[in-house]
Amino acid sequence: MKVPVFTELQKLEFKEKPKPEIREAEVLMKVEYCGICGSDVHGYLNGIMVPLGTVMGHECSGVVAEIGANVKNFTPGDRVVAKPIPECGECYWCRKGQFSLCNKAFERAIGISPAHDGAYAEHVRIEYPDQMLFKLPPNVSFQQGALVEPLATSLHGVRVSSFKPGDNVVVIGAGMIGLGTIQFLKIGGAGQVIVLEVSEKKARLARDLGADVVLDPTVEGEGLRERIFGLTGGVGADIVYECTGVPFGFQNAMFFAKSGGQVMVVGINDKDVAINPFMLVLWEIDLKGVLGYYDEFNHVIRFLEQGKINSDLFISGIVPLADIEEKGFRRLIASKDEVKILVKP
After folding, report:
1. pLDDT at 232
2. 65 and 127 in one domain?
3. How far apart are CA 82 and CA 282, in angstroms?
4. Model-level pTM greater than 0.90?
5. What is the phi/psi pair of residue 267, to 5°?
6. Element (H or E) spanning 154, and its range?
7. What angle do CA 33, 39, 43 make, to 5 degrees?
């Protein structure tokens, strides 16, 4: 099979690779759809988090094609979604249920290193099926299945925050992670959801998915903080979710929070960013990072099954694997309006 290999910065080169062979405890998954993640794009641009030689792709759904002799919980034909970062189940963090903090998880993950090929391919080898595979209900499509991984990150950000029903919140960025965060906040009974977004298209999506107020920071300018405080009774947001991964969001998030509030850093920012820690101290702001997910996959699948997530609005386009670079990666880089592009092998 031909797969796109990350051979140099801003270049994917299609190379012939044999169909993966599985061992006794492994599963071979036929890929139906795989989403292009923001971390894939970051890696493509600058090599951060994704080494050269990697076959990327980790937001995937598909069908169990083959099983090893020792696999008990899956059979060929099962419709599944893959959690790409398998925990060991034995370390200090796994015993606490904090699976994304497992010190072996990322070295086992698919699509982020040359050691474990990802799902930009016709088939992907699943080495730890009991940790990595989740069955899809009949009424959840493969396209929806490919959204489970990023939605799990959004849900995780809400669950590990101090959020409670009635809280007024600010979500910075209405990309895939931000839009998912908006939906889970609304499901959870948020008070006012204020979204900051510069793209008119994404701003419309945010409103369609339940945002109460959407503001363009470039239009509001220096009055943005005052506007947010005015919308929250002069107090500020209980929680700010930074979902862009760009310096502006991280640098300014604490200025939108109330004294004693919380800032959740959900977006991945790979640049050095200057902040004034004195303001964190002065306002007693709780600054917390978010990495991946713990047990959110089952919850997201259940929400999709129950029709509580409007997933159709997330998909900006579907492209064949052969066009992944031009119509996928470069399209996402060129436009701020795209949310999620799915790849179809």
Report:
1. 97
2. yes
3. 43
4. yes
5. -75, 145
6. helix 148-159
7. 110
What mean pLDDT is predicted for residues 238-262? 95
Report the C-alpha gap between 333 and 182 in whole angstroms: 24
Residue 266 · residue 177 · CB < 8 Å: yes
**Domain with 59 in it:** 2-151+293-344
User: Residue 344 corresponds to which amino acid?
Assistant: K
CATH number at residue 273: 3.40.50.720
pLDDT in tens, 150-166: 999 999 999 999 999 99
Token pair in block for residue 342: 């799915």
Who contacts 148 (Cβ-Cβ below 8 Å, separation ≥6)? 59, 61, 81, 134, 297, 300, 301, 304
Q: What is the rounded CA–CA span in Å between residue 289 and residue 241?
A: 10
* pLDDT score of 341 more than 90: yes
Six-digit token pair at 302? 């259940």
> Do the domain assignments include residue 156?
no
Minimal CA–CA distance to 34: which of 12, 7, 3?
3
Question: Distance between CA 56 and CA 246 in Å, rounded?
Answer: 22
Q: What is the mean pLDDT of residues 265-292?
A: 90
CATH code at position 61: 3.90.180.10
At position 336, the amino acid (one-letter code) is K
Q: Tell whether 44 and 95 lie within a shared domain.
A: yes
DSSP label at residue 87? -
| CA dihedral over 128, 131, 136, 137, signed as positive or negative | positive
Confidence of residue 234 (pLDDT cuts 50, 70, 90): very high
CB 30 within 8 A of CB 62: yes
pLDDT tens readout for residues 286-297: 999 999 999 999
pLDDT band with cut points at 50, 70 and 90 for residue 48: confident
Say how far apart CA 277 and CA 79 lie, in whole Å: 48
> What is the helix, strand, coil percentage profile of the chain, to 5?
35, 25, 40
Q: Cα separation of 284 and 282, whole Å?
A: 6
Q: Where are the alpha helices (DSSP H) in 163-276?
A: 176-187, 200-208, 217-220, 224-231, 247-252
